[in-house]
Amino acid sequence: MPLKIDTSDYPVSEELISPSTIETIDGALTNFVHQLDIFCTTHESWKKAPIIWTSAERSFQVKNNKDLRDDNGMFIKPVITIERTGITKNLNKKGSVYANIPAVNDEKGGTITVARIINQDKTSNFENASAERNHNQWNYRTRRATQVVYETITMPLPIYIEVTYKISLYAEYQQQLNEMMSPFLITGAGINYKIITKDDHRYEAFVQSDFSHTNNLANLSSDERKYQTDVTIKVLGYLIGAGANQEQPRLVRRQNAVAIKIPRERVIVGDINEFIKKGFYRE
Known about the structure:
Layout: H1 22-35, E1 39-41, E2 46-48, E3 51-53, H2 58-64, E4 79-88, E5 112-118, H3 120-135, E6 150-155, E7 159-171, H4 174-185, E8 193-198, E9 201-215, E10 227-239, E11 252-255, E12 262-263, E13 281-282
Parallel strand pairs: 3-4
Antiparallel strand pairs: 1-2, 4-7, 5-6, 6-11, 7-10, 8-9, 9-10, 12-13
């Protein structure tokens, strides 16, 4: 969950730029499969195929939804399972931020500028001080502000990864398998490309062309009949920060210097009286 802070005065907040993690990519792929709304024909009725993320413990699956298994603990078909099979950091496959941009070398970090706004309070303080010095009046109207304090907001560099998922379709009949495969086959129409989203993040998903089939029809034993088709989907995603292990802030705010003042060495030997106005500093 993104860290909630008071950002009422900023156009960009950490709630709007929520971190993109591996779990965010997993959730986007799961949402995509749910949005396909896959139904198939069963001996009961036209029924939606349940979708299961296979990384969950078996004890949790049994307790969370008892209708998914029979009395022997076996999945009731038809069913769809999702499994993440691999992650690759391929330097040849990147998104809009292709170059390696080093972060600012300090305790805050930050790489890409996402917003730049004027700090009204500090800018008005500088202008009021200048008006009092030059015109002996605060809030003196000037044609143009000469000392403007800008606040720059930066975020970490997105790291692009390629995540591979295996979606397995299990059925008892060939008809059920055909009905479940059809939504994946028509995804992207003439191309195998789809945009998947979660928490305002957009990832590119590519449905691989090879749909592998297995069954136990050749086995004439008493085992139950089983059809299985595996669909492989590769997702080009990105990571923003290290999630819970992120030591630096997700959004970094910095302010610019509007004036540089240094003491003159002649003051030490009494060349300029340091007690008069503006005697010690020179711009």
